[in-house]
Amino acid sequence: MMRAVVTGGAGFIGQHLIEALLAENYQVAVLDNLSGAGDIQFPKGVKLYQYNIEDPLILDVLKKEQPDYLFHLAAQVSVQKSMEDPYADLLANVVGTVNLLQHCITCKVKK
Fold it and tell me: 72 Cβ partners below 8 Å, 6+ apart?
């Protein structure tokens, strides 16, 4: 069984990607801080790790889950928030992405 981690899995696109991956018999884990999510219920068997993508503990999640693939959909997308706190925007959208890429190399994620 193939394993996938989806960052931003609580978002609109992430939820549909999770459904598609489950239909293809993937084991799915989600990394999401749930900042933009309402009362979301993930399908049975989907593991949720509630972290910001710049959190160093994500490396531990990837080591535990050993994904074949990581789908990176997480981002801070609020224009208003980016204007109010551009540094937080930078952390989530740039630093978080670079950290994920480095963690994928460390954990030998295929793609």
Answer: 7, 8, 53, 97, 100
Of all helices (H) and strands (E), which one includes residue 30?
strand 27-31
Handedness of CA 109, 4, 55, 45 (dihedral sign): negative
Say what the pTM is.
0.90
| Dist CA 28 CA 37 (whole Å) | 18
Q: Which of 3-12, 36-45, 71-80 has the highest mean pLDDT?
A: 3-12
How do the domains of the chain map onto residue ranges? 3-106
| Residue found under tokens 């074949």 | 68
Note the CATH architecture for domain 3-106: 3-Layer(aba) Sandwich (3.40)
Report the distance separating Cα 70 and Cα 90, nearest Å: 21
In the numeric block, the tokens 């999640």 are attached to: 61
